[in-house]
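Researcher: Checking consistency across runs. Here is Sporulation integral membrane protein YlbJ again:
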Amino acid sequence: MITTKPNSKKNNNKLGILLITSILIFVLIYPETCMEGCSKGLELFVTALFPTLFPFLVLCNILIHFKGEEFYAPYLGPLICKPLKLPSSCSIVILISFLCGYPMGAKYTCSLYENKQITYDNAQRLLNIASNASPLFILGTVSLSILKNSFYGIILLLSNYLSCILMGLLLNNKNSSHKNNTVLLTNKNALPSFAKAFSMSIDDGISVTIKVGAYVIIFSVLNNLIMKSQVFNSLISSNNIIRVISSFLMSLFELTNGCMLISSINAPVYIKLGLISFAISFSGICIILQVYSIVISHGFSIKKYVIRKLFQGMLSFLITVAIYFTLFQNISSTTMAYCYKADYKAKYFIMIILTLLLLVFNVLFSIKKQNHPKKS
């Protein structure tokens, strides 16, 4: 019986070789564009990524080394993990991902799995649930720097969190149970000394941060080559539909520049917000590859992860449009101006949003539980 799988793999390999060869040729033809992209990526890494990601990684690593997830599990677990039928130790990972963004959720999902605190199936689900953009990116970079309107940031933040919660409910494993409310298996190894935990946390933090930085720099080079190419410029300067499509596809490749392109298209506000919301929830190929580099050694399905991220993006698009038409379409320009000029205290606002979402989430779960009582 003849099979086509080997031929398919050979064809994919040939396509990959041709693609890499084409990129190498472009790099040789346009060295200045390549160097400019590399400089931009390095600047982004040094000025924004490293100062924010590295300290969080070190501190969170120390927290995990001293079993912080077990400490917080009894308090956060019933509120966050019980409706999702996940072990309570997952609560700290979900909270970290909500506050710190990509790729922190993937990193600490793997940590729990390595420590045998969650099963493979729960880890695969948690990988998507704990996969979000940070509030700082949504409220700062996208809302203020790109859209120039802090009010739109609220819509995007709500959409990002709500789509994540809905994904958690839709991915709910009916066969799993929350009876083991803290951890699946408790690691009874002795706690390391603070010096050892600190040293290991720094080593791991440097490794992950440099790996993420390398992806950012490489994709900055590729992004610069695409943006400066005549083909791309002719596409975005042609008719509006092609410009919308090309800008949206660019956002699926690299998130930040894609959001900037979408913000400049000639389209209604709700379309722009919906497309940006989709891109934020999907995260982009650059971030997906960062996640893949973290989870590859554990055998998690990246195909399943990507399909679920696409579905989350669709949910986020629909939620954004619904919120816009339901709550914000008829708001007066005076109110918008006031909201734009208001000096938001971001950390308090984020905590309030998270608290309200968790309370709503828990109430919905309680109602569901009352409507479907356990059979005696």
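Researcher: Does this match what you'd expect to see?
Model: One thing to look at in this run: Residues 177-186, 332-347 have pLDDT under 50 and may be disordered.
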